[in-house]
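Format is chain and fold; as here:
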Amino acid sequence: MCRLLRISNTILTTWERHGFVAPARHYRFHDLVALKSLAQLRRNRVRPERIRRIVDTLRARLSGVHDPLAELKIFCDGRRVSVQVDGHKMEPISGQLLLDFDRETLRRLLEFPAAPAAQTEALAAEAVRRQAQAWFEKGVALEQQGERAADVISAYAKAVELDPESAGAWLNLGTVHYNERHWTEAEQCYRKALGARPDYALAHYNLGNLFDETARPREAIEEYRKALELDPTYADAHYNLALLYQGVHEPLSALRHWRIYLQLEPDGYWAGVARRELTRLRQETVLTGASRRSNG
């Protein structure tokens, strides 16, 4: 297998240690698919820790997918890791939509002309919607090409200017601002996405990430809880909530969300982290209770 994939035995052992594949004397076709995906990601210098996060996120996000490396097409598209799901490309961590363009389509989109400063009264609503979609697709294309964040922001901004009800465009725009650490702009975009689509669990989750990143734990907790009201099986939201509850000294709430996370995600690296935190919290709770009884 190592000769076939042109890797050393040390690399294969590392993948086994991370739980990407099980140690075996003989490999099945299912294992070969996973190993070929790993080899391709390694050639593109994707670190095992990032692969671990991608695999765990895909398991949490996609019901019925147990081994993403073997069951899904995970590949590098330029500098970006993408995953093929139901015929569409997706950014595996954020869930952001990536449209599958060939070279000619990318060239055409990148040459998409600017809209006139003022739309004429005769312009039909459907034509405006189509133009907004074209700007959205241009924004996605620019991201896939690794173009400047300012150019990507400009394209998404034009999309939401033409169609303020495009929740997906608001979300993508917010994520670009988030990655650029434009906190105020990112928050505004996520709230606009929720205004257009109140049941958008991913928008609540992203808003929670933003509040967590900017040291606003109570607001982050509220947004993660809203995401879970819409999708109780959102494993990453349970994970982040458990950490936040630990940080604000609410161990019982943290325990509850660690347990739920482990029910949803019993395997993998992050499950191991969750078990360690759960064990530590239980021990601290027992010690605190014993100390109070002693003092009493």
